[in-house]
Design a protein that fits this description.
four-stranded antiparallel sheet, 1 helix, about 5% helix, single chain
Length: about 180
């Protein structure tokens, strides 16, 4: 199953578990988004094309990251006029993973995320709670000799100057 959605003035063909980089949308990292601007929906058998959107269809996604894109340099120049302008730009982006594509009237499947472990729910007298804390490995020490053995790189000798050249004699006064 796939869908075509519109966001940020662009159209994207998406399927479940696709990871997309789109223009910045409001939301926290690990938050959830839903797109109701579904332009087309294909379920493997038939295709629904909206006019302009498919009624009741929704695509849900999880926000993986809020970041900035690569820098783009904008350079303008008019030759022989002394006119030059240089400007940089970094687009704000949201990285998302598509979690579900729901057709009209379909219900959202239950979330398959693992529940966070809650250590406060365990009774204090269980054997797991009475285990001794894990021992940490001892920190590695660098021997003093090894640290002192490193010597700074030798300084380079200054470059030699070329030998002074004799000035050329004027062309009218040459010895025969």
């Amino acid at each position: 199953m796939y869908a075509v959605i519109r966001t940020g003035g662009k159209q994207y063909k998406v399927a479940e578990n696709d990871v997309l980089t789109i223009e910045r949308l409001d939301g926290e990292k690990e938050g959830e988004l839903s797109f109701s601007n579904v332009l087309a929906l294909h379920d493997g058998k038939d295709i629904q094309i909206g006019a302009p959107f498919v009624e009741g269809a929704v695509v849900t996604a999880d926000i993986l990251e809020q970041s900035r894109g690569a820098k783009i340099i904008v350079f303008k120049k008019k030759r022989r006029q002394g006119y030059r302008r240089k400007k940089g730009h970094r687009q704000l982006e949201t990285v998302i993973r598509i979690t579900a594509i729901l057709a009209a009237g379909a219900k959202k499947a239950t979330a398959k995320r693992a529940a966070p472990k809650d250590d406060t729910a365990k009774p204090a007298d269980t054997p797991a709670a009475k285990k001794a804390p894990a021992k940490k490995a001892p920190a590695k020490k660098v021997p003093a000799k090894a640290a002192a053995a490193k010597k700074p790189a030798a300084a380079k000798a200054p470059a030699k100057k070329p030998a002074a050249r004799k000035p050329a004699e004027p062309p009218g006064e040459q010895e025969d």
